[in-house]
Amino acid sequence: MHFCLRNRFVKLVFYIIIYVFFSDTISHAQNIGDFRSNGSGDWGSIASWQVFDGTNWAAATNYPGEIAGNYSVTINAGNVISTSGISTAPMGPIIINGELQLNGSNTMVTFYFDTPQISVTKGLTPSATIGFNNKSTLSLPANSTIKVWAGGLSSDCSNNQRIHIGTIDFANCNGAPGSVFTFAELMDAGGTLDAEENVPSLSCLGEPISLIGNYSGAIGAPVTYSWTSTGPAPLVFFPSADIQNPTITPGAAGIYTISLTVKTLKGTILYSNTESSTMVIPPASTTENKTICENELPYLWNGLTFTQSESQTATLKNILNCDSLATLNLTVLSAASIE
């Protein structure tokens, strides 16, 4: 087969594969697998739920948390989802627009939801709420958060209704000792301690980047800040990694994970929360090797014209308006080339 013809065929197949891949990605850009309540009922009953299939909300074949995933779970306004005891597999955030009722007993019942966040929506009428009944403990993994507002936690408010995060007894409804938050304190503050960071998803190599840290939720003593990173090269937080808003200057291209941990001391207990973000630093120079057929000359690339096998370098501005150098090593095959 003539190499140039084969080269065009390979390119065509490649573009078809890319088209199919991206078409599939776009068509699945919604939250396939997300759950929402289908009326009132028990959490562990599949009849209580619908699941998004990419186009429509369909009858669920399992309940949220029965199978691990990163799907979100929404309890719709007007719906009451209850449980008398549950321990879920990992899942995405839980959004409460209706009611989640935790039905405890005369002995303590623990309700474990393996989710990074429970969010009780603010400002609804009637109020969205998590109800604690009898002796009941809402337990979440370490570093999880709860967003909640006035009316968002309801109970008879004894010290037998609790919220655990990891190994920490984070809040008791009433009668909490000085080191434990009360439900009222959580609702007044908008929820549990939650780190908040503003990190650009893309930035330029070698240019200073200002990081912004903050927090929300209940605190005891004033919070402290601590920044860390992982990636292709160490990052220096200037003037310190222990201030709210440091500056970094990436010295290597690649993908970085930047994390902010905030801590607060209430009584004798140290509470903390960490948020992480991904930042991409494009390379300042790239090199591409390309082979074309002789009949494709002259070949235009980034404002440069190629008339033979050669290498040329273009000075470009990337999407961030950063300077970058792009080099093309072009090989031209003669029409007589035969495999």
Task: Output the keywords.
2 helices, single chain, mainly beta, 7-stranded mixed sheet, 9% helix, 339 residues
Fold topology:
Layout: H1 3-27, E1 35-37, E2 41-42, E3 49-52, E4 57-59, E5 73-75, E6 80-83, E7 86-87, E8 94-96, E9 99-103, E10 109-112, E11 117-120, E12 129-133, E13 136-140, E14 145-147, E15 153-154, E16 161-165, E17 168-172, E18 181-182, H2 183-189, E19 194-198, E20 209-210, E21 212-216, E22 224-230, E23 247-248, E24 254-266, E25 269-281, E26 285-293, E27 299-301, E28 304-306, E29 310-317, E30 323-333
Parallel strand pairs: 1-5, 2-6, 5-8, 6-9, 7-10, 8-11, 9-12, 10-13, 11-14, 12-15, 13-16, 17-18, 26-30
Antiparallel strand pairs: 1-3, 3-4, 16-17, 19-21, 20-23, 22-24, 24-25, 27-28, 29-30
Word description of this protein:
There is one protein chain. The chain has 339 residues and is mainly beta. The protein is built from two helices and 30 strands. The strands form eight sheets. A seven-stranded mixed sheet has the order 4-3-1-5-8-11-14, with no helix packed on it. A six-stranded mixed sheet has the order 7-10-13-16-17-18. A five-stranded parallel sheet has the order 2-6-9-12-15. It starts with a helix and ends in a 6-residue tail after the last strand. Residues 1-29 have low confidence and may be disordered.
